[in-house]
Amino acid sequence: MTPVPLDLTGDPRRHRRERIMKTIFWTSAAVSIVVSGSIVLSLVGRAVAFFTQVDATALFEIGWFPRRGLYDLLTPLAGTLIVALLAMLVAVPLGLGAAIYLAEFARPRVRRWLKPIIEVLAGIPSVVLGFFALTWISPNLVQRVFADAGVFSMLAASIGVGVLVTPLVASVSEDALRSVPNSLREASFGLGARRSTTVRKVVFPAAISGIVASIILGLSRAIGETMVMFMAGGAVGGGLRQFNPINPGTTMTAAIASVATGSDQVAGEGLTFESVFAIGLMLFVVTLGLNWISNRFVRRIRETY
Amino acid sequence: MATGTVDTTTVVRKALEGKRLNVGGLVFEWGMLLLLLSSLLVLVVLLGDIVSGAIPTFRARGFDFVTSGLSLNPETAGVSTAIVGSIAITAVVAVVAFPIGIGAAIYLEEYAPDNRWTRFVDTNIRNLAGVPSIVYGLLGLAIFVRLVDVVGLGGQTGGKNIFSAGLTLAVLVLPIIIITSAEAIRAVPNSIREAGVGVGATPWEVVRHHVLPSAAPGILTGTVLTLARAFGETAPLIVIGVATGFFGAAADATVLERATGPYTALPVVVFSWSRQSVGAFGDTLAPAAIVVLLFVLFVANAGAIILRNRYEKTW
Predict the structure, then answer these.
(1) Fewest beta carbons within 10 Å, which of A143, A201, B168, B192?
(2) A253 domain-assigned
């Protein structure tokens, strides 16, 4: 018996189309690598140019006045740290409280109403919160409590950034709390523990890695936030090294933005243009590191349950 | 979650707790509620502050504020230039980021083998999503402004126009579009794919005729929400040289000349009016521009939610 000649290879045009489509999709995915590569290259290239050409003493003196050739890196770094930490003092209690209430106490119907409102807060652009920090938080909160605070202060900006970060902390830690299996709660109730005890002694510790992740993620977002600090924090164009939050100060992000909004756009004396990229590189490395740590924590909850 | 429903857990818990009033527990619960409500209070105060600031402008000018262009005179300044700029930028973002984002999501969900390269791409996208927006501004300044100039779209601004702005915001939202689209594609059950493959469809045919139609509502909702985010971005635009002051195009300028000329965007106008020395700009015009901005974002979000509720499939 001779075998029947049967061609199962299919239409070559169909095969070609398959290959083309796959290549298109692969290329789209590879674009993200190109984007990362260009970010790193454009930052590193000019940052290296900055650090090799700058007069080393200009990096540590007086303050951040790029247009006058004074690039004290500690000024924006300290400002960023102060603003981000104060912002977390606002965002962690508000965000965690909201998360705990929504995940553990709220009835489904209440939750259905409250959660979208938190999401609305998350959708408000930072420029709007910057305006709010400048025109409401500064005169009504900061200047009322601290009589000698000016219109622009790091504290007013911090509160604004804190409000901006709150929904992020709330939603990530709510996810963490909700991923704690019900069997743990039931076991606790079975031992006679009350709901509040269960939340504090059982659910919260079980969700701790996710909650820590939400806080680190919030910190990273606070460090990378520009507009609130730029509009309400003062020190536009430059500033002295400043540790008192009721005074105006500058952060890494605001330092970049203020160089860019000068009348001459990003330009100016000597290394001004390059200095912005050096700050940008610092900002990039710090936020990347924090996001990496936060991801490690998130992975830990996934592995446990 | 045992909340709300009367199930065994609740009954057993109630019986074990007894009937004594639990003061500490109540204080804790009410404390958490108080923290939640203070976030809501912030939202209410914020909206109240902005709306009350905006009312004089809308009362005096009405819709005229939305249709008039930029001006140094607070009596006649309006947001139409900014709205046109923002819409043009968002259109560039959509044209660039939508196809690439969906293509990448399809690759990662449907084609990519589970190997180191795929995991690297995946991690990379997640990291990109966390990069501060102002860093994208630096990327745009270093690369896209020049790129736009080199390909001949620089115009009189030397590349500081809506094209470089759109490209910058497109790479800013790209990781978010990829992540949300990948989630929507992942939600399509495997049985659908297997049925397609079972009748002899190739991978692309399965994607084209089965996976994409099923995932489309989720992808579109995610994309609309992401475009709304791009619409509200300010910091990267400031870095890549958006016009923060007054400018005008010649009356006889061609479409290309207008598109490659100076531009501004709605959130940028909010920013620059807030710091004007003329009081009226910061006191009444900036809040009015914010109201317009929030209105656009509200419409986009509502549209996305309607889209999702209308077409979302539950398997």
Answers:
(1) A201
(2) yes
Q: Write phi, then psi, for B100 (nearest 5 degrees).
A: -65, -45
Q: Helix or strand or coil: residue A9?
A: coil
**If you count residue pairs, one on A and one on B, with CB atoms under 8 Å apart, how many are there?**
284
pLDDT tens digits, one per residue of B284-311: 889 999 999 999 999 998 888 888 888 7
Range of the domain at A211: 76-304
pTM reported for the whole predicted model: 0.89
With an 8 Å Cβ cutoff, are B25 and A127 in contact? Answer: no
The total of structural domains in chain A comes to 1
The pLDDT tens digits of the residues spanning A31-71 come to: 999 999 999 999 999 899 888 888 777 777 777 887 777 78
Nearest in space to A220 (alpha carbons), one of A155, A161, A277:
A161
Distance, C-alpha A215 to centroid of its chain: 10
Q: What is the CATH number of domain B65-311?
A: 1.10.3720.10
B280 at A interface, C-beta within 8 A: no
List, for residues A11-35, the tens digit of each pLDDT value: 888 889 999 999 999 999 999 999 9
Q: How many CB atoms lie within 10 A of CB A34?
A: 11
Select the more confidently predicted residue: B99 or A241. Answer: B99
Per the rule left: phi > 0, alpha: psi between -120 and 50, beta: everything else, B69 is beta
B132 and A190 in contact by Cβ < 8 A? no
